[in-house]
Amino acid sequence: MSDIDAPRLRRAFGRAAVGYDAVAALQREVASRLLEQLVALGKREPERVLDLGCGPGGAAQAMHRQWPQAHVLAVDFALPMLRRIDIGRQQWWRPARRALQPVCADVAALPFVEASADLLFSSLCLQWVADLPHALAGFRRVLRPGGLLLFSTFGPGTLVELREAFAQADAGDPVTPFAQIQQVGDALQSAGFRDPVLHRDRFTLTYPDVTTLMRELRALGANNARTDRRRGLMGKARMQRVVDAYERLRRDGALPSTWEVIYAQAFAPQPGQPIRDDDGEIARVPLDAIPIRRRGQ
Questions:
Q1: What is the residue-level pLDDT of the chain in tens, covering all 297 positions?
Q2: Rounded to two decimals, what is the model's pTM?
Q3: Phi/psi class of residue 158: alpha, beta or left (left: φ > 0; alpha: ψ in -120 to 50)?
Q4: 143: part of which helix (H) or strand (E)?
């Protein structure tokens, strides 16, 4: 859990909508891997699919193409992102095909009735949620028994080089903190999901300089949304210290940037399964009881 300035975050993603696709190569790659995982599971065609934190809707459109008769809802709290989606239209010669439906809503407070969805898909959205256990409890409420939850989120190894450079310059933390894989697994168990499986990837992107990296983060809408963030503009001297600290990592003419991505899948339980144990405490399950696999195994 962390204190998130939700209005600031919504404005940042709204401003990012127009240029988002031009800088979102990693986001598309992660969504593609999550979609591959969905295909590998070989589930029957769902009736209703929610793409939570859909951004400009690439994954929602892919699932709409895969399941033309399913009701696919693209959910995001930034209205300008939803306006970028080509929702398609039902046409007279394809009467069985449903139109993709955008919904402006907060994924932490889903406005859907209980047990109304067969699949919840969310790629690189949950790292911006202030209370992950609360959000996952809402996901469980919306999923039908046996329904699938499949999501990705950034882990704490993301942008570690940038964080360290800011720390060395005494410039605060430029990025909202992200949950560890143990915390993600624990939150799934606490919400009552069954058969959770987690794995993670690490990506290394390269940039010509720190300014380009920070400009790309702003273009993605990935601003520091913590309520306790450092306020005001950074002075030139402190920013130069950040640059000097990061420059020590330069290799082969470029600066590295690490991105840790956590993937998770789990299923909604059957009706009546409790979220809390007999003592009223949230159930805790050791991480070694959750299968965690790494890509390639």
A1: 457 788 889 999 999 999 999 999 999 999 999 999 998 887 788 999 999 999 999 999 999 999 988 999 999 999 999 999 987 655 544 555 577 999 999 999 999 999 999 999 999 999 999 899 999 999 999 999 999 999 999 999 999 999 999 999 988 888 888 999 999 999 999 999 999 999 999 999 999 999 999 999 999 998 777 766 665 556 789 899 999 999 999 999 999 999 999 999 999 998 766 654 434 344 444 444 445 554 444
A2: 0.87
A3: beta
A4: strand 143-154
172 vs 165: CA distance, rounded Å: 10
3-class secondary structure, 252: coil
Collapsing DSSP to helix, strand or coil, 196 comes out as strand
The arrangement of strands across the sheet holding 101-104 comes to: 101-104, 71-76, 48-52, 117-123, 143-154, 255-267, 194-207
276 vs 189: CA distance, rounded Å? 10
Residue 64 to residue 74: CA distance in whole angstroms: 10
Query: Among all chains, which residue has been given the structure tokens 């898909």?
Result: 121
Nearest to 146 by CA among 126, 120, 164: 120
